[in-house]
């Protein structure tokens, strides 16, 4: 027995703004029906006594420990920059002179 009809697939396609051919509607109806049948079989599994879990593996902190170490000097950081100004990276201005929200 089919769980999803071709008309329902056409309606879903319209909601998703998909233009599907008749062959695509028939194909997707069969595919979605197979998916729904599989989900139904999973829902019928006996899970009595099984604790719900989001992840079957134990949570483990996989980050490295923090260690203080020397970073780049200002000169080293700016050495590869195409342009600098007053000890900073120089970049093209992309906003006007006005500050957002400032009184005019």
- Globally, the shape reads flat
Spatial order of strands in the largest sheet: 1-2
CATH T-level topology of the domain at 6-41: Histone, subunit A
**Which percent band covers the strand fraction?**
under 5%
Uncertain residue segments: none
Total helical elements: 3
Task: Report Rg.
Answer: 30 Å
Can you identify the CATH class of the domain at 6-41? Mainly Alpha
CA-CA gap between termini: 70 Å
CATH architectural arrangement of the domain at 6-41: Orthogonal Bundle
Oligomer description: single chain
Mean of residue pLDDT values: 87
Give the helix level as a range of percent: 25-40%
Describe the structure.
By secondary structure, the protein is mainly alpha-helical. It has a domain at 6-41: Orthogonal Bundle (Histone, subunit A), CATH 1.10.20. It contains three helices and two strands, in the order αααββ. It has helices at residues 6-15, 22-43, 74-78; strands at residues 84-85, 88-89. Strands 1-2 form a two-stranded antiparallel sheet. α1 crosses α2 (22-43). The longest helix has 22 residues, at 22-43. It is flat and about 70 Å long.
In short:
Helix content is 36%, strand content 4%. It has helices spanning 6-15, 22-43, 74-78; strands spanning 84-85, 88-89. Helix 1 (6-15) packs across helix 2.
Supply database-style keywords.
104 residues; ATP-binding; mainly alpha; two-stranded antiparallel sheet; 4% strand; Histone, subunit A; 2 strands
């Amino acid at each position: 027995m089919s769980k999803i009809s071709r008309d329902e697939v056409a309606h879903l396609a319209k909601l998703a703004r998909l233009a599907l051919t008749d062959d695509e509607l028939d194909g997707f109806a069969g595919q979605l029906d197979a998916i729904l049948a599989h989900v139904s079989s999973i829902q019928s599994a006996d899970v009595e006594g099984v604790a719900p879990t989001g992840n079957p593996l134990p949570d483990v902190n996989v980050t490295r420990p923090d260690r203080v170490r020397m970073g780049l000097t200002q000169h080293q950081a700016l050495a590869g920059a195409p342009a600098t100004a007053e000890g900073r990276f120089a970049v093209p201005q992309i906003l006007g002179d006005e500050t957002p929200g400032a009184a005019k």
